[in-house]
Design goal:
Helix content is about 40%, strand content about 5%. The chain is mainly alpha-helical and about 70 residues long. The chain has one domain. The longest helix has 17 residues. The N and C termini lie far apart (about 35 Å).
């Protein structure tokens, strides 16, 4: 499956949440991260939620996370 990986997309936000040690919480920013209105899970389609979790899971498979040390 191919996902939109642009900055702020559901896939991008899923990967970022894993990277920053945040729990999975589906959301995205249609205009780019931190710009415009944040769309949360209650207003997302199943495909958008699936893309979020795909990004989170792909990042988890790589195992890369920010080192705060």
């Amino acid at each position: 499956m191919s996902y939109d990986t642009s900055h702020g997309s559901p896939f991008d936000r899923g990967g970022a949440d894993y990277w920053y040690h945040r729990p999975a919480y589906p959301h995205y920013w249609p205009e780019g991260t931190g710009r415009g209105i944040k769309i949360c899970q209650g207003h997302m389609s199943k495909a958008e939620i699936d893309a979020y979790y795909a990004g989170f899971d792909e990042a988890a498979e790589r195992g890369d996370q920010k080192d705060y040390g």
